[in-house]
Amino acid sequence: MSRSDDTSPPESADDLDGCAAVFIDGSCLLCLRSVKLLVRLDRRQRLRYGTLGSRTFERMVAATGNAPAPAALPDSVVVIDGGRVHVESDAILAIARRLGFPYSLAGVFRLIPRAVRDGLYRYVARNRYRWFGRIDQRPDHCPVPTPEERARLLPDDETSERPASS
After folding, report:
1. What is the per-residue pLDDT across 142-157, written as a single tens digit (0 to 9) for each?
2. Could you report the per-residue pLDDT of 23-81, keeping only the tens digit for each?
3. CA distance 60 to 16
4. What is the mean pLDDT of the chain?
5. Residues 160 and 53: beta-carbon distance below 8 Å
6. What is the pTM (predicted TM-score) of this model?
7. Is residue 88 within 8 Å of 122, Cβ to Cβ?
8. 67-90 burial, b for 16+ CB within 10 Å, e for fewer?
9. In three state form, how does the secondary structure of the chain look?
10. Using CA atoms, how far apart are residues 39 and 77, in angstroms rounded to an integer?
């Protein structure tokens, strides 16, 4: 099912015309730079991007019917693909799968136990601000989306409050 009005926020993964939704921490420079890279790598345009804590994020998580409350999800990246919510290392692998070959070969990391993969993911997520910074720490690094990037962004119809991590 496709949306009849492209300006209205998607209510569920069904509204994305077969694309996956990647929700990131909009204040994290690592996350923002990663989206810029993903837009370049995603030649098939199978990914759409939004921010964690937006109303679009909350509606799409609720529409899956099988995920915890949005506030209980990780605060770095969440992927909604085909009605499923992917977090931590599974979110990264879902993104790689959507990018196609050769990036989809990262699926081999599923052979590593999730606890190990997620432990490494959490280590990077916990240190991302210290290593890469936040927009409020480095306003001179605030990325302005290109027209191509802007076309891939999900509508961010106001952001609800979400606790910031340290």
Report:
1. 667 778 888 888 887 5
2. 999 889 999 899 999 999 999 999 999 999 888 898 888 888 877 777 778 888 999 99
3. 10
4. 82
5. yes
6. 0.81
7. yes
8. beebeebbbbbbbbbeeebbbbbb
9. CCCCCCCCCCCCHHHHCCCEEEEECCCEHHHHHHHHHHHHHCCCCCEEEEECCEHHHHHHHHHHCCCCCHHHCCCCEEEEECCEEEEHHHHHHHHHHHHCCCHHHHHHHHHCCHHHHHHHHHHHHHHHHHHHCECCCCHHHCCCCCHHHHHCECCCCCECCCCCCC
10. 16
In the block, tokens 């492209």 appear at 6
Q: Tokens at residue 84, please? A: 């499923």
Q: Which residue has the tokens 């345009």?
A: 45
Q: Tokens for 164?
A: 């910031």
